[in-house]
Amino acid sequence: MTLRSAARGFLAFLLSVQVLRGNGDLRVTYSSSNVCALRGAMVYIGCTYEYPDSVQYRPTTVRTLWFTEGDNYQAVDLKHDAGYTGRIEYRCEEVSCTRSRCHGTCALRIRDLRWSDSAVYKFRFTTNQPGVEYTGEPGVKLSVTDLQVKVSFPYPTIPTWTNLECHSRCGLAGDPRYIWFRNGQNLGQGLNNLVVPKFGDSYSCAVEGYALRSPSVYAPKTPSVTVRPSGELEEGSSVTLSCSSDANPAANYTWFKVINQRYYRHMNQGPQLVFGRILSTDSGQYCCIAQTELRTSELIYIYVKYRPKHTSVYSRPSGEIKEGRSVTLSCSTDANPAAKYTWFKNNQSLPWGPSQRHTFTSVRPEDRGTYRCHAKNKYGQLSSNSISLNVKL
Fold it and tell me: 3-145: which CATH architecture?
């Protein structure tokens, strides 16, 4: 069978190297040493064999079989292998004998190829003559492959164009015609490569005459971001932001913190941004960018919860205050969630809380003293410094 006549029946690449093994009188010749074929297609592996016409003056009868190297070197006929049931056929021609030698041909046909069919296949014949049996070595290596679409950007200065190549590990026989699909719609026959605008659609390819189609390639969908743990984030805890996007080929991810509408601070490469011990200053807006074609995620806000920090008290106005004037004492702290306040005069609690400030509308001499405040939320508490209120008569 020639490669051209085989092109419609099966899709394979046959190395044109004869493989000969014999012991002088016995011989097996394989038509190829390697066969590479598409998953789901059909393939033929062929050979010829030779043996003496007769031994000890009696006609020779022959039994033939194919087996795989995976049979641990036991010649188990593939016809009895459950993995090949209904998918294999032997096509062996009638033996012809001339000048005391006999010649036969036998081909193994496998339909609906599977990944598991990748193996080394060997032909063996046995006869009714003592010692006249032979296995062809080293056999024929069959590799089952798929179609894939390779993506490249051939024009760096024109980033709006993308090159797609319909590719397999095999050099497919018969100069096949390719079919391209965009969003599942047939674009017609063509070559194995296709140049398209920087794509937002999905593309796949097939070989004319075969149902097998490559997986689709497509630009990233808008990435989604998640935060773990969810809910309130306490300062000092471990927090992980994760970015994911449906894309083929897989996307690369870059994380940014949003400073303002025009400035993004680069944070990390990869699908996750991990804060081993998150700080209050890490609060803010974050986004990730998925790249095979640029796509930006929705913004995610994280707010870190923490105990009160930098608690202080101050007076307006400050210094000596004239009797009868208005004076306001204020307490400030940095806390999330907001703190509640307790006030003290001369270390005695006051009934002013939980307000952040207290105003004396008309200060009196008996208001003299040392004041401080105490800030508290669910994550902790902190007292302020003390200030003195001096009332001048």
Answer: Sandwich (2.60)
13 falls in which pLDDT band (50, 70, 90)?
A: very low
Which residue in 163, 172, 169, 173 sits closest to 148, CA to CA? 169
The pLDDT tens digits of the residues spanning 302-314 come to 888 999 999 999 9
Nearest to 297 by CA among 239, 246, 233: 246
389 contacts 327 by C-beta, under 8 angstroms:
yes
Which band of pLDDT confidence, cut at 50, 70 and 90, is reported for residue 173? low
Which strands make up the sheet holding 239-244, listed edge to edge? Answer: 224-228, 239-244, 272-275
- Give the pLDDT band (50/70/90) at residue 37: confident
Report how far apart, in Å, the C-alpha atoms of 130 and of each of 41, 60, 125, 127, 222 are. 40, 10, 13, 8, 73
C-alpha 372 chain-centroid distance: 58
Name the segment(s) of the chain with CATH classification 2.60.40.10.
Answer: 3-145, 148-218, 224-302, 308-392
Q: Domain spanning 148-218: which superfamily?
A: Immunoglobulins (2.60.40.10)
